[in-house]
Design brief:
2 domains; 0% strand; elongated; membrane; transmembrane helix; Mercuric transport protein MerT; transmembrane
């Protein structure tokens, strides 16, 4: 038997309060996570990026061989079939060559770019 009589609607108010507080916690986590996750990923990616910096020379040499080989393959196919390569192929190879030029020239470009960004 109940000693004190509960006011009407108190059970519904309690359930509503628990539901809303649970929703608030969930929303808080969902709103904070997009801000925290990129920082966590970047912090853990630091050693990986440092490892890539150490690989710059031999990866650049591999890229040079790949791009030169691809241009050679395109030239060979063009001579063999007597057809002009597709425009998309030439655009993609031009972009690859431009990015390769940046990679090769990076040791010369890095310091001036960093100086420019500090200002």
């Amino acid at each position: 038997m109940k000693d004190a009589k509960e006011p009407p609607g108190s059970k519904a108010a309690g359930v509503t309060a628990v539901t809303l507080s649970t929703g608030a916690v969930a929303c808080g986590v969902c709103c904070v996570l997009p801000f925290v996750l990129p920082a966590t990923v970047l912090a853990s990616a630091g050693p990986l990026l440092a490892w890539f910096v150490g690989m710059h020379v031999w990866v650049t040499v591999l890229a040079i061989l790949s791009v030169v080989g691809a241009w050679g393959w395109i030239a060979r196919q063009t001579r063999r079939t007597a057809r002009k390569p597709a425009t998309s192929t030439l655009v993609m190879m031009g972009a690859a060559t431009a990015l390769l030029a940046v990679a090769v020239l990076w040791p010369l470009l890095e310091r001036p770019l960093i100086r420019m960004l500090r200002v």
